[in-house]
Amino acid sequence: MENLNSFIFYSSTQKNMIKIGGFLIVCISLVYLLNRSYQESYFLNASDYNVYLESGNSEKLKSVEKEIDFWKQKLDHAPSQYTYSKKVASGMMESFAIERDINTLNEATHLLESIHADVNSKDVSVMRNLARNYISQHRFLDAKSILKKAEKNGEGLQETKAILSDVYLELGDINKAERYLEGAFPDNKEFHYLIRKAKLADHKGDLEAAIGLLEGASAIAEEMNNKDLSYWSWSNLGDFYGHAGRLEDSYNAYLSALEIKPYESYPLYGIAWISFSHLKNYKEAHRILDKIHERSSDPKYYDQKAQVSQAEGNTIDYEIYNRRYINEIKKAAYGGMYAPVWIEYGLSFDQDNSELIDRAQQEVDARPVPQSQALLAWAYFHNGELSKAVEIMDSKVYEKCYEPSVLYQMAEIYKADRRYEVVSDLKSELQASIYELGPAMAPIVDRL
Q1: Using one digit for the tens of pLDDT, what is the confidence trace for 91-147?
Q2: Cα–Cα distance, 45 to 405 (Å, whole number)
Q3: Residue boundaries of the structural domains of the chain
Q4: CB–CB of 236/214 below 8 Å?
Q5: Rounded distance, CA 430 to CA 437, Å?
Q6: SS3 of the chain: helix, strand, coil, percent, to 5
Q7: Helix (H) and strand (E) counts in the chain
Q8: Which phi and psi angles does 125 have, rounded to 5°?
Q9: Which fold has domain 338-448?
Protein backbone atom coordinates (compact mmCIF):
# COMPACT_ATOMS: atom_id res chain seq x y z
CA MET A 1 0.00 0.00 0.00
CA GLU A 2 2.84 2.30 0.93
CA ASN A 3 4.55 1.53 -2.38
CA LEU A 4 1.29 2.22 -4.22
CA ASN A 5 0.88 5.58 -2.45
CA SER A 6 4.47 6.43 -3.28
CA PHE A 7 3.85 5.57 -6.92
CA ILE A 8 0.66 7.67 -7.05
CA PHE A 9 2.46 10.62 -5.40
CA TYR A 10 5.41 10.28 -7.78
CA SER A 11 3.15 10.01 -10.85
CA SER A 12 1.09 13.02 -9.77
CA THR A 13 4.22 15.07 -9.10
CA GLN A 14 5.71 14.05 -12.43
CA LYS A 15 2.55 15.10 -14.25
CA ASN A 16 2.51 18.46 -12.43
CA MET A 17 6.16 19.03 -13.26
CA ILE A 18 5.47 18.25 -16.91
CA LYS A 19 2.56 20.75 -16.89
CA ILE A 20 4.70 23.41 -15.23
CA GLY A 21 7.53 22.77 -17.67
CA GLY A 22 5.18 23.06 -20.61
CA PHE A 23 3.74 26.28 -19.20
CA LEU A 24 7.24 27.71 -18.77
CA ILE A 25 8.16 26.80 -22.35
CA VAL A 26 5.03 28.57 -23.60
CA CYS A 27 5.82 31.65 -21.48
CA ILE A 28 9.44 31.77 -22.65
CA SER A 29 8.30 31.40 -26.27
CA LEU A 30 5.79 34.21 -25.86
CA VAL A 31 8.38 36.49 -24.27
CA TYR A 32 10.81 35.70 -27.10
CA LEU A 33 8.21 36.36 -29.79
CA LEU A 34 7.02 39.57 -28.14
CA ASN A 35 10.58 40.80 -27.70
CA ARG A 36 11.41 39.91 -31.29
CA SER A 37 8.26 41.67 -32.49
CA TYR A 38 9.15 44.74 -30.38
CA GLN A 39 12.68 44.83 -31.76
CA GLU A 40 11.40 44.49 -35.32
CA SER A 41 8.82 47.25 -34.85
CA TYR A 42 11.17 49.55 -32.97
CA PHE A 43 13.57 50.08 -35.84
CA LEU A 44 14.07 53.81 -35.18
CA ASN A 45 17.43 54.64 -33.76
CA ALA A 46 18.01 58.24 -32.70
CA SER A 47 21.69 57.91 -33.54
CA ASP A 48 20.63 57.53 -37.20
CA TYR A 49 19.09 61.00 -37.42
CA ASN A 50 20.42 63.03 -34.49
CA VAL A 51 23.19 64.38 -36.68
CA TYR A 52 20.57 65.89 -39.00
CA LEU A 53 18.58 67.34 -36.11
CA GLU A 54 21.66 68.98 -34.63
CA SER A 55 23.28 70.19 -37.85
CA GLY A 56 20.37 72.45 -38.75
CA ASN A 57 20.22 74.44 -41.96
CA SER A 58 21.99 77.70 -41.06
CA GLU A 59 25.04 77.03 -43.24
CA LYS A 60 22.93 76.19 -46.27
CA LEU A 61 20.73 79.24 -45.72
CA LYS A 62 23.80 81.48 -45.43
CA SER A 63 25.02 80.15 -48.76
CA VAL A 64 21.64 80.77 -50.42
CA GLU A 65 21.33 84.25 -48.91
CA LYS A 66 24.83 85.10 -50.10
CA GLU A 67 23.81 84.09 -53.63
CA ILE A 68 20.65 86.22 -53.42
CA ASP A 69 22.63 89.23 -52.18
CA PHE A 70 25.12 88.82 -55.02
CA TRP A 71 22.40 89.00 -57.68
CA LYS A 72 20.62 91.84 -55.89
CA GLN A 73 23.79 93.90 -56.03
CA LYS A 74 24.15 93.13 -59.73
CA LEU A 75 20.51 94.17 -60.20
CA ASP A 76 21.08 97.45 -58.37
CA HIS A 77 23.78 98.36 -60.87
CA ALA A 78 21.76 97.21 -63.90
CA PRO A 79 18.02 97.37 -63.10
CA SER A 80 17.04 96.62 -66.69
CA GLN A 81 18.78 93.24 -66.66
CA TYR A 82 15.78 91.08 -65.82
CA THR A 83 17.95 87.94 -65.88
CA TYR A 84 19.35 89.17 -62.56
CA SER A 85 15.82 89.40 -61.19
CA LYS A 86 15.25 85.79 -62.29
CA LYS A 87 18.33 84.75 -60.32
CA VAL A 88 17.05 86.57 -57.22
CA ALA A 89 13.64 84.89 -57.53
CA SER A 90 15.28 81.50 -57.98
CA GLY A 91 17.33 82.03 -54.83
CA MET A 92 14.22 83.03 -52.90
CA MET A 93 12.48 79.83 -53.94
CA GLU A 94 15.44 77.79 -52.76
CA SER A 95 15.31 79.66 -49.45
CA PHE A 96 11.58 78.95 -49.12
CA ALA A 97 12.13 75.25 -49.81
CA ILE A 98 14.57 75.12 -46.87
CA GLU A 99 13.02 77.48 -44.30
CA ARG A 100 9.33 77.45 -45.36
CA ASP A 101 8.89 81.16 -44.73
CA ILE A 102 5.67 82.03 -46.58
CA ASN A 103 6.74 85.65 -47.00
CA THR A 104 9.73 84.51 -49.05
CA LEU A 105 7.46 82.53 -51.38
CA ASN A 106 5.15 85.51 -51.81
CA GLU A 107 8.07 87.87 -52.46
CA ALA A 108 9.46 85.55 -55.12
CA THR A 109 6.03 85.32 -56.76
CA HIS A 110 5.61 89.10 -56.85
CA LEU A 111 9.07 89.46 -58.38
CA LEU A 112 8.30 86.90 -61.10
CA GLU A 113 4.97 88.60 -61.85
CA SER A 114 6.82 91.90 -62.24
CA ILE A 115 9.36 90.32 -64.62
CA HIS A 116 6.55 88.68 -66.58
CA ALA A 117 4.86 92.05 -67.05
CA ASP A 118 8.12 93.83 -67.96
CA VAL A 119 9.08 91.39 -70.72
CA ASN A 120 5.54 91.38 -72.11
CA SER A 121 5.00 87.63 -71.60
CA LYS A 122 7.87 86.69 -73.92
CA ASP A 123 10.04 84.63 -71.55
CA VAL A 124 8.56 81.13 -71.23
CA SER A 125 10.94 80.14 -68.44
CA VAL A 126 9.52 82.99 -66.32
CA MET A 127 5.99 81.73 -67.03
CA ARG A 128 6.90 78.21 -65.93
CA ASN A 129 8.64 79.39 -62.77
CA LEU A 130 5.65 81.58 -61.96
CA ALA A 131 3.35 78.59 -62.52
CA ARG A 132 5.46 76.54 -60.09
CA ASN A 133 5.06 79.27 -57.49
CA TYR A 134 1.31 79.39 -58.07
CA ILE A 135 1.19 75.63 -57.52
CA SER A 136 3.07 76.06 -54.23
CA GLN A 137 0.46 78.66 -53.26
CA HIS A 138 -2.36 76.30 -54.37
CA ARG A 139 -3.40 78.82 -57.03
CA PHE A 140 -3.98 76.08 -59.57
CA LEU A 141 -6.27 78.01 -61.90
CA ASP A 142 -3.69 80.82 -62.12
CA ALA A 143 -1.01 78.22 -62.87
CA LYS A 144 -3.16 76.69 -65.60
CA SER A 145 -3.82 80.11 -67.15
CA ILE A 146 -0.18 81.12 -67.44
CA LEU A 147 0.92 77.66 -68.62
CA LYS A 148 -1.63 77.77 -71.44
CA LYS A 149 0.05 81.01 -72.57
CA ALA A 150 3.42 79.28 -72.39
CA GLU A 151 2.04 76.38 -74.42
CA LYS A 152 0.80 78.78 -77.08
CA ASN A 153 4.28 80.35 -77.24
CA GLY A 154 5.62 76.93 -78.25
CA GLU A 155 9.08 77.17 -76.69
CA GLY A 156 10.20 74.30 -74.43
CA LEU A 157 6.92 72.45 -74.87
CA GLN A 158 7.99 69.28 -73.08
CA GLU A 159 8.53 71.04 -69.75
CA THR A 160 5.39 73.16 -70.17
CA LYS A 161 3.24 70.10 -70.89
CA ALA A 162 4.75 68.23 -67.93
CA ILE A 163 3.77 71.02 -65.52
CA LEU A 164 0.34 71.27 -67.15
CA SER A 165 -0.08 67.57 -66.41
CA ASP A 166 0.65 68.34 -62.74
CA VAL A 167 -1.90 71.15 -62.71
CA TYR A 168 -4.65 69.12 -64.36
CA LEU A 169 -4.09 66.36 -61.79
CA GLU A 170 -4.46 68.92 -59.00
CA LEU A 171 -7.65 70.17 -60.64
CA GLY A 172 -9.06 66.66 -60.88
CA ASP A 173 -9.04 66.42 -64.67
CA ILE A 174 -7.37 63.02 -64.93
CA ASN A 175 -7.92 62.59 -68.67
CA LYS A 176 -6.12 65.83 -69.49
CA ALA A 177 -3.40 65.07 -66.95
CA GLU A 178 -2.70 61.77 -68.69
CA ARG A 179 -2.94 63.25 -72.17
CA TYR A 180 -0.44 66.01 -71.41
CA LEU A 181 1.87 63.56 -69.70
CA GLU A 182 1.93 61.17 -72.65
CA GLY A 183 2.36 64.11 -75.03
CA ALA A 184 5.31 65.45 -73.07
CA PHE A 185 7.20 62.16 -72.81
CA PRO A 186 7.06 59.80 -75.83
CA ASP A 187 9.79 57.82 -74.03
CA ASN A 188 7.99 56.48 -70.98
CA LYS A 189 11.21 55.54 -69.21
CA GLU A 190 12.26 59.08 -68.33
CA PHE A 191 12.48 60.16 -64.68
CA HIS A 192 9.98 63.00 -65.03
CA TYR A 193 7.51 60.70 -66.76
CA LEU A 194 7.75 57.99 -64.09
CA ILE A 195 7.22 60.30 -61.12
CA ARG A 196 4.08 61.76 -62.68
CA LYS A 197 2.80 58.33 -63.67
CA ALA A 198 3.32 57.31 -60.03
CA LYS A 199 1.17 60.20 -58.82
CA LEU A 200 -1.57 59.25 -61.27
CA ALA A 201 -1.47 55.62 -60.10
CA ASP A 202 -1.71 56.72 -56.47
CA HIS A 203 -4.63 59.00 -57.32
CA LYS A 204 -6.43 55.99 -58.80
CA GLY A 205 -5.81 53.96 -55.65
CA ASP A 206 -3.10 51.69 -57.09
CA LEU A 207 -0.44 52.26 -54.45
CA GLU A 208 1.61 49.19 -55.37
CA ALA A 209 2.00 50.39 -58.97
CA ALA A 210 2.82 53.90 -57.73
CA ILE A 211 5.62 52.55 -55.54
CA GLY A 212 7.05 50.49 -58.39
CA LEU A 213 7.11 53.54 -60.66
CA LEU A 214 8.77 55.69 -57.99
CA GLU A 215 11.38 53.02 -57.33
CA GLY A 216 12.13 53.00 -61.07
CA ALA A 217 12.47 56.79 -61.05
CA SER A 218 14.76 56.61 -58.01
CA ALA A 219 17.05 54.13 -59.77
CA ILE A 220 17.30 56.49 -62.77
CA ALA A 221 18.13 59.44 -60.49
CA GLU A 222 20.85 57.42 -58.77
CA GLU A 223 22.29 56.38 -62.12
CA MET A 224 22.30 60.03 -63.24
CA ASN A 225 23.98 60.99 -59.95
CA ASN A 226 21.45 63.83 -59.72
CA LYS A 227 21.15 64.80 -56.06
CA ASP A 228 18.03 66.93 -56.46
CA LEU A 229 16.12 64.14 -58.21
CA SER A 230 17.43 61.48 -55.81
CA TYR A 231 16.33 63.55 -52.82
CA TRP A 232 12.88 64.04 -54.34
CA SER A 233 12.59 60.30 -55.04
CA TRP A 234 13.60 59.14 -51.57
CA SER A 235 11.46 61.66 -49.69
CA ASN A 236 8.39 60.69 -51.74
CA LEU A 237 9.16 56.98 -51.41
CA GLY A 238 9.23 57.57 -47.66
CA ASP A 239 5.63 58.79 -47.89
CA PHE A 240 4.45 56.03 -50.23
CA TYR A 241 6.06 53.25 -48.20
CA GLY A 242 4.33 54.67 -45.14
CA HIS A 243 0.94 54.58 -46.89
CA ALA A 244 1.61 50.93 -47.74
CA GLY A 245 2.51 50.04 -44.15
CA ARG A 246 6.16 49.38 -45.06
CA LEU A 247 7.35 51.53 -42.19
CA GLU A 248 10.94 50.37 -41.92
CA ASP A 249 11.34 50.99 -45.66
CA SER A 250 9.73 54.39 -45.12
CA TYR A 251 12.20 55.21 -42.34
CA ASN A 252 15.21 54.14 -44.42
CA ALA A 253 13.96 56.17 -47.40
CA TYR A 254 13.74 59.30 -45.24
CA LEU A 255 17.28 58.63 -43.99
CA SER A 256 18.49 58.30 -47.58
CA ALA A 257 16.88 61.65 -48.40
CA LEU A 258 18.58 63.28 -45.40
CA GLU A 259 21.93 61.85 -46.41
CA ILE A 260 21.59 63.79 -49.67
CA LYS A 261 20.18 67.01 -48.19
CA PRO A 262 20.84 67.05 -44.44
CA TYR A 263 19.41 70.57 -44.10
CA GLU A 264 15.90 69.60 -45.25
CA SER A 265 13.08 69.24 -42.71
CA TYR A 266 10.53 67.24 -44.70
CA PRO A 267 12.08 63.77 -44.09
CA LEU A 268 12.44 64.60 -40.38
CA TYR A 269 8.70 65.28 -40.19
CA GLY A 270 8.21 61.81 -41.68
CA ILE A 271 10.45 60.24 -39.02
CA ALA A 272 8.59 62.14 -36.30
CA TRP A 273 5.31 60.73 -37.63
CA ILE A 274 6.67 57.15 -37.52
CA SER A 275 7.79 57.68 -33.92
CA PHE A 276 4.37 59.12 -33.04
CA SER A 277 1.87 57.07 -35.01
CA HIS A 278 3.58 53.69 -35.22
CA LEU A 279 5.80 53.43 -32.17
CA LYS A 280 3.67 55.63 -29.87
CA ASN A 281 6.93 57.19 -28.62
CA TYR A 282 5.36 60.58 -28.00
CA LYS A 283 8.35 61.97 -26.12
CA GLU A 284 10.68 61.31 -29.05
CA ALA A 285 8.14 62.69 -31.54
CA HIS A 286 7.97 65.93 -29.51
CA ARG A 287 11.78 66.12 -29.40
CA ILE A 288 12.13 65.72 -33.17
CA LEU A 289 9.39 68.26 -33.87
CA ASP A 290 10.86 70.83 -31.50
CA LYS A 291 14.28 70.52 -33.15
CA ILE A 292 12.71 70.98 -36.60
CA HIS A 293 10.88 74.09 -35.38
CA GLU A 294 14.21 75.71 -34.49
CA ARG A 295 15.01 75.94 -38.21
CA SER A 296 11.70 75.88 -40.07
CA SER A 297 8.60 78.10 -40.18
CA ASP A 298 6.35 75.34 -41.54
CA PRO A 299 2.88 75.45 -39.89
CA LYS A 300 2.95 71.65 -39.99
CA TYR A 301 4.85 71.86 -36.69
CA TYR A 302 1.79 73.08 -34.77
CA ASP A 303 -0.46 70.51 -36.44
CA GLN A 304 1.76 67.55 -35.55
CA LYS A 305 2.39 68.86 -32.03
CA ALA A 306 -1.38 69.08 -31.54
CA GLN A 307 -1.90 65.53 -32.77
CA VAL A 308 0.81 64.10 -30.53
CA SER A 309 -0.59 66.00 -27.53
CA GLN A 310 -4.09 64.71 -28.27
CA ALA A 311 -2.88 61.11 -28.52
CA GLU A 312 -1.11 61.29 -25.16
CA GLY A 313 -4.21 62.77 -23.52
CA ASN A 314 -2.79 66.26 -22.97
CA THR A 315 -5.93 68.25 -23.81
CA ILE A 316 -4.45 71.59 -22.74
CA ASP A 317 -1.47 71.38 -25.09
CA TYR A 318 -3.69 69.95 -27.80
CA GLU A 319 -5.94 73.02 -27.66
CA ILE A 320 -2.95 75.38 -27.53
CA TYR A 321 -1.18 73.90 -30.56
CA ASN A 322 -4.35 73.36 -32.54
CA ARG A 323 -5.38 76.99 -32.06
CA ARG A 324 -1.89 78.21 -32.97
CA TYR A 325 -2.01 76.08 -36.12
CA ILE A 326 -5.37 77.53 -37.19
CA ASN A 327 -4.34 81.10 -36.36
CA GLU A 328 -1.15 80.70 -38.39
CA ILE A 329 -2.70 79.23 -41.53
CA LYS A 330 -5.52 81.80 -41.54
CA LYS A 331 -3.01 84.62 -41.94
CA ALA A 332 -3.43 86.61 -45.14
CA ALA A 333 0.05 85.63 -46.31
CA TYR A 334 -1.11 82.04 -46.85
CA GLY A 335 -4.03 83.03 -49.05
CA GLY A 336 -6.17 79.95 -49.65
CA MET A 337 -3.38 77.39 -49.21
CA TYR A 338 -4.88 75.92 -46.05
CA ALA A 339 -8.54 76.87 -46.56
CA PRO A 340 -9.82 73.27 -46.35
CA VAL A 341 -8.14 72.83 -42.97
CA TRP A 342 -9.62 75.90 -41.30
CA ILE A 343 -13.01 75.31 -42.92
CA GLU A 344 -13.09 71.83 -41.39
CA TYR A 345 -11.95 73.26 -38.06
CA GLY A 346 -14.80 75.80 -38.13
CA LEU A 347 -17.30 73.01 -38.79
CA SER A 348 -16.34 71.33 -35.51
CA PHE A 349 -18.27 73.98 -33.58
CA ASP A 350 -22.04 73.99 -33.12
CA GLN A 351 -23.11 77.01 -35.14
CA ASP A 352 -24.77 78.16 -38.32
CA ASN A 353 -22.40 76.85 -41.00
CA SER A 354 -23.93 78.60 -44.01
CA GLU A 355 -20.87 80.84 -44.41
CA LEU A 356 -18.55 77.83 -44.28
CA ILE A 357 -20.72 76.05 -46.83
CA ASP A 358 -20.21 79.02 -49.17
CA ARG A 359 -16.45 78.86 -48.55
CA ALA A 360 -16.39 75.11 -49.21
CA GLN A 361 -18.28 75.72 -52.46
CA GLN A 362 -15.54 78.19 -53.45
CA GLU A 363 -13.00 75.40 -52.89
CA VAL A 364 -15.01 73.16 -55.23
CA ASP A 365 -15.18 75.91 -57.85
CA ALA A 366 -11.43 76.51 -57.66
CA ARG A 367 -10.44 72.85 -57.43
CA PRO A 368 -13.24 70.37 -58.24
CA VAL A 369 -11.47 67.28 -56.94
CA PRO A 370 -13.13 64.62 -54.72
CA GLN A 371 -11.40 66.04 -51.62
CA SER A 372 -13.07 69.44 -52.17
CA GLN A 373 -16.41 67.77 -52.86
CA ALA A 374 -16.07 65.76 -49.63
CA LEU A 375 -15.41 68.99 -47.73
CA LEU A 376 -18.59 70.50 -49.16
CA ALA A 377 -20.56 67.38 -48.20
CA TRP A 378 -19.04 67.58 -44.71
CA ALA A 379 -20.15 71.20 -44.43
CA TYR A 380 -23.73 70.32 -45.40
CA PHE A 381 -23.65 67.38 -42.96
CA HIS A 382 -22.62 69.65 -40.09
CA ASN A 383 -25.36 72.06 -41.05
CA GLY A 384 -27.97 69.34 -40.70
CA GLU A 385 -28.52 68.94 -44.45
CA LEU A 386 -27.92 65.18 -44.66
CA SER A 387 -29.61 64.58 -48.02
CA LYS A 388 -27.34 67.11 -49.77
CA ALA A 389 -24.28 65.62 -48.07
CA VAL A 390 -25.24 62.11 -49.21
CA GLU A 391 -25.96 63.25 -52.76
CA ILE A 392 -22.50 64.82 -53.09
CA MET A 393 -20.75 61.81 -51.57
CA ASP A 394 -22.59 59.42 -53.88
CA SER A 395 -22.02 61.34 -57.10
CA LYS A 396 -18.67 63.06 -56.57
CA VAL A 397 -16.63 61.13 -54.00
CA TYR A 398 -17.62 57.47 -53.58
CA GLU A 399 -15.04 55.18 -55.28
CA LYS A 400 -13.28 58.28 -56.63
CA CYS A 401 -11.00 59.05 -53.68
CA TYR A 402 -9.17 56.75 -51.27
CA GLU A 403 -7.64 59.19 -48.80
CA PRO A 404 -8.33 58.02 -45.22
CA SER A 405 -9.54 61.46 -44.07
CA VAL A 406 -12.12 61.52 -46.89
CA LEU A 407 -13.18 57.93 -46.21
CA TYR A 408 -13.80 58.88 -42.58
CA GLN A 409 -16.07 61.78 -43.57
CA MET A 410 -17.88 59.44 -45.96
CA ALA A 411 -18.35 56.83 -43.23
CA GLU A 412 -19.87 59.34 -40.79
CA ILE A 413 -22.29 60.66 -43.42
CA TYR A 414 -23.34 57.19 -44.56
CA LYS A 415 -23.73 56.08 -40.95
CA ALA A 416 -26.17 58.95 -40.40
CA ASP A 417 -27.98 57.77 -43.55
CA ARG A 418 -28.13 54.21 -42.09
CA ARG A 419 -26.08 52.65 -44.86
CA TYR A 420 -24.46 50.28 -42.42
CA GLU A 421 -23.10 47.74 -44.91
CA VAL A 422 -21.07 50.42 -46.71
CA VAL A 423 -19.98 51.87 -43.36
CA SER A 424 -18.72 48.45 -42.29
CA ASP A 425 -16.51 48.22 -45.38
CA LEU A 426 -15.24 51.77 -44.86
CA LYS A 427 -14.55 51.04 -41.20
CA SER A 428 -12.32 48.12 -42.16
CA GLU A 429 -10.37 50.33 -44.56
CA LEU A 430 -10.02 53.03 -41.94
CA GLN A 431 -8.82 50.61 -39.27
CA ALA A 432 -6.09 49.57 -41.69
CA SER A 433 -5.18 53.25 -42.14
CA ILE A 434 -4.78 54.31 -38.51
CA TYR A 435 -1.08 54.91 -39.08
CA GLU A 436 -1.95 57.66 -41.57
CA LEU A 437 -4.84 59.04 -39.52
CA GLY A 438 -2.97 59.03 -36.21
CA PRO A 439 -3.57 57.09 -32.97
CA ALA A 440 -6.20 59.53 -31.65
CA MET A 441 -8.50 58.46 -34.50
CA ALA A 442 -8.45 54.76 -33.52
CA PRO A 443 -11.28 54.92 -30.93
CA ILE A 444 -13.31 57.24 -33.19
CA VAL A 445 -13.06 54.77 -36.07
CA ASP A 446 -13.93 51.87 -33.76
CA ARG A 447 -17.18 53.60 -32.84
CA LEU A 448 -18.36 53.80 -36.46
Answers
A1: 999 999 999 999 999 999 999 999 999 887 789 999 999 999 999 999 999 999 999
A2: 30
A3: 282-336, 338-448
A4: yes
A5: 8
A6: 80, 0, 20
A7: 25, 0
A8: -65, -35
A9: 1.25.40
